[in-house]
Amino acid sequence: MKPTALVAGNWKMNGLASSQAELEALGNYLRDGDTADCGVLICPPFTLVASFAANAPEGVAIGAQDCHTNKSGAHTGDISAEMLRDAGAAFIIVGHSERRADHGEDSALVCAKAEAVLAEGLTAIVCVGETEAERDAGKTLDIVLGQVAASVPAESTPENTVVAYEPVWAIGTGRTPTVEDVAEVHTAIRGALVERFGEAGNGFRILYGGSVKPSNASELMAADNVNGALVGGASLKAADFNGIIDAYR
Ligand code: PEP
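Structure for Triosephosphate isomerase, as requested:
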């Protein structure tokens, strides 16, 4: 059965308390527009998780962008999945390419973080994706499938894990792969999940991320094995994010 789609916003290091207005505006769009046949998620910076979760409009889930592998302890500046669950997060993104690049996170660490998310009963969004040099060298599927194999925990199920394919060169650049290229990678990820998890592999949501905007969302979301979007820049404005959700109305 085709999984229910998810449109997730990753606010990265953007957003102040005043951003609550954008969350409310998104709630109004969802309430006033035709019903969207997808889940909707906003992952603000840590400082906003608790207030957003407390004030989330109906139909909007709140998540976080990273977590530590441990529950608690001497890890200055870090935050645990347990703390994020306590603050009201339902999802946690792990292995975003900005964390892999800026913080040297490898797939083994990403997998350990995803396991920490699952242990709290939350859903992990596990990010994978190739760099431009890797794509140019014809290594896209090797890199992406290698990351999927090493980053997705053995305990993953369609309910507790989402995979996000985000070509690094498409993030924040305004460039996207062709729909055919997206479909090829997503179908390969689907195959790897079915090989590993059996029939359950068909139930995992595989999101596409990288310069998704209202003008390209419909064609990208219609590609084979694309079950939603992980959206950076265009998730910051409720009107733009709602325009992407339109792909599911
Ligand atoms: C992201 O960073 O997850 C992302 C997809 O960013 P953008 O939509 O801005 O390319």
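The radius of gyration is 17 Å.
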